[in-house]
Structures are given as C-alpha cells and as structure tokens.
Amino acid sequence: MLVDSIDHPKPPNCTQGSVLGPFHTNDAPHLPIGSSITTDDAGEPILALCTVCDSSGRPLSGVKVDVWEADSAGHYDVQYANRQAPSGRCVMTSDVDGGFWFRAIRPVSYPVPDDGPVGRLLGLLKRHSSRPAHMHFMFEKQGLDRLVTTLFIRGDKYETSDVVFGVKSSLVVDLDRIDKKTAVEYGVPEGTLLLRHKFVLASARETEELRDKNAMEAMERLGLKTKLVDHLPVPDLD
C-alpha cells in the first residue's frame, strides 16, 4: 500500500488505488458489457453499473477494465486444484459513454492463507487474517495512469481492520436494491443488489507531476538539497 501510494499518487478528485493482491490472472475472458462474470449459483446476485471518466469529468471510452472477485465461499478460482476455467473475473471495455456493467455476486469477507510465515507473523502480532468483502478493478488505456483499486462493501465487520491495510474511506461503498424501472432496463429481478460507482482516472502526466512534487516536498522536509533526474531525487551539488 505504501509503495503504491508513493508511485501512483492521485489528484484529490480521482479514484484512489489499492493493492493488486495475489489473485489477479491474465487469463480472464474478454466479455461483452452486460455479461455475468460468475458461475457461482450459491452467491447472492448483484448488478454492477459503473462509469469511468477523466479528472475533468469527461467519459473515457475504450478503457480496458479487469474485474475479479472471490466466490461465495471466500475463495478465488485459482485456489481450487480442479479449476477448469476462469470464474469470478473478466475483462471488459468501456463504451462510448464510459460505461460498463456486469452481473456478479455479492462479495464476501475471507481469510488470507495463513498456514505459513504470514500466519506465524499475524499470530505474533495478535491480528486476524481476514479481509473485508470487496471487488477488484484495474483500468488501463494509453495516456492514463494505470489504476488498480478495490471497492469495499460498507458495514463489513473487518472494514476497519483489513489484514493487508487495503481499505481507504473513499473506496467504501453502499449497496442498494434495484427498482422496477432499472430491473426492466437491465433484465434482472426487481430487488436485486445494486452496486453503482463512478471511477475517475488520472492521466499519466498528472500522476507523474504529482509524484515529482511529492518527492521534492519530502526532500525539503528532511532538509535535503536535491533535484530530480529521471524523476528520482538526487543530491543537488551545483
């Protein structure tokens, strides 16, 4: 989280990042907008209606969007030895209005694997091993700073004690229920859970300028005379 915050700072009006996590894969299917990303019939259905725009509010079309989540048992597809095909994940492309929507299941909280050194460390720290319910997103398009982020469901009992410190207040969201009009429009039952969110992406230039600014201000607070060379602070000996 610290490295991501330093390398990919976001202007105040942009969506903040979070950790990538170990369960992203490169074999997610490319699906058309409106598809279901899950094969888990035990999970509670949810409809996600999302948009993506730049820092000025202009819709961004043609953005590659990766989405992935755990199943209703709290496991990702890659954690199953008999995994036959990707599930709970997809790649979509935002439309001309910056929109993308899909059907999934309500995210659930789950423990990270704790049967090795991570578990021993957490035991010594007297910390639990659980993550709050969440869904992962990654956005990529030329000219934009790649955004890796996560939406967390408000009210989860682990919301304020995420084992990997990934929660930021701006990434905690509420779920609603779909009304009759929306149900008809999107072809889902009335009362289905609804996740609605607008993602705001920074340009690569915005992130680069903010990262440089933060680096110089940090050096000044330390009382160091520095300059930037290839965006890295080095001693200013001139």
Q: Which of globular, elongated, flat, extended, rod-shaped describes the shape?
A: globular
Helix/strand-derived category reads alpha+beta
Beta fraction of the residues? 25-35%
**Unreliable residue runs:** none
Instruction: Report the count of strand segments.
Output: 13
What's the number of structural domains?
2
Radius of gyration: 20 Å
Regarding CATH, which class of the largest domain?
A: Mainly Beta
The helix count comes to: 4
Question: What is the H-and-E element order?
Answer: HEEEEEHEEEEEHEHEE
Distance between the termini: 35 Å
What strand line-up does the widest sheet have? 3-2-7-8-9
Sketch the major β-sheet.
5 strands, mixed
- The CATH superfamily of the largest domain is known as Aromatic compound dioxygenase
Describe what you observe in this structure:
The chain has 238 residues and is of the alpha+beta class. It has 2 domains: 201 residues, Protocatechuate 3,4-Dioxygenase, subunit A (Sandwich), CATH 2.60.130.10; 34 residues, no CATH class. The strands form 4 sheets. A 5-stranded mixed β-sheet has the order 3-2-7-8-9, with no helix packed on it. It has a 4-stranded mixed β-sheet with strand order 4-1-11-10, with no helix packed on it. The protein has a two-stranded antiparallel ribbon with strand order 5-6. InterPro entries: Intradiol_dOase_C, Intradiol_dOase_core, Intradiol_RC_Dioxygenase.
